[in-house]
Amino acid sequence: MSFQEVIGQEAAIAQLKNAFINKRTSHAYCFSGPQGVGKKKTALNFAKLLMCAHVQNTEPCDICSSCVKVNALNHPDVLVVAPEGQFIKIDSIREACRRLNLKGFESSKKILIISKAQSLNEESSNALLKTLEEPSADTVIILLTDALKSILPTIRSRCQRIVFQALPEGVLKKMLEAQFKLSDEEALYLVRISMGRLGVALKYHEARLFERKNKMLEDVLRPDYPLDKLLAIGSLERSEKNLKIDEILCVLSSWFRDLVLAKTAGPFKNFINVDRKDDIIMASRRYTLSEIEGCISAIADTAFENERNINWRISMANLRMELWK
Questions:
Q1: Alpha carbon 22 to chain centroid, angstroms
Q2: What's the CATH number for 3-163?
Q3: What is the pLDDT of residues 15-63, one digit of tens each?
Q4: Residue in 251, 257, 289, 285 with CA at minimum distance from that of residue 270
């Protein structure tokens, strides 16, 4: 794993490398940008760079003991904290900060990476703030977020912000076509439904979403189709249920977004579901613009509830009622 594997984030990586070269690494960073654009991979590569015994042209060597351990996520001086459920627990932050105050086990540097930092609640934020206010020279804290405004201003102000961007449509489309030999329609669909997020596009390609999405739409828009059969998630773990529901909501959202374009005479070439142009135009005639906007709002509300682990049966049942009012 190297910085070269992070596509389209040259500006962000250049900032980090320049800080390393000039020995001006900040004690705290906030990597902000859409989900699936390489923030975590960049954070781990930066950790390797700071720990590496044989740096080569601002790239970690990837073969020394430190690099190998960071790649395996088992370096004792590189801590990764993520939400457990809806929030990042205060005990997780307290333990991470306690370990940052200890002498490094194998390195002179100690690094804390916080995934989905917007999940810090008031208690865990305050626990982290104490460490940010009194940083030690050998510690680097990296916050990863796709919702910057959800992080307390007092924490944001103590971090150097590194901005990550979604990839331009043409760049990601060419990349997908070259790597996976996709049709023009499938590549365009993956680019647009992922909103330029490489990691999301790859996830949807692996899940064969383009092949499945039309059947998924047909089922979810049928009011008589059993909810359990639609979701087929009764025996899945909660995290797997969330992923499957997110997938359905994403497909639904793309459909109604295309209906808005059709209703407002938007360019058909900008549809996400480019293979369903005629169906979209016909379906748009059955709704008013206000009704379509209401459906999009209901989908967004359901996504919000799913993220917070609200009862999925109730949430999805309510959504289907909204779609078929």
A1: 31
A2: 3.40.50.300
A3: 999 999 999 999 999 999 999 999 999 999 999 999 999 998 899 999 9
A4: 257
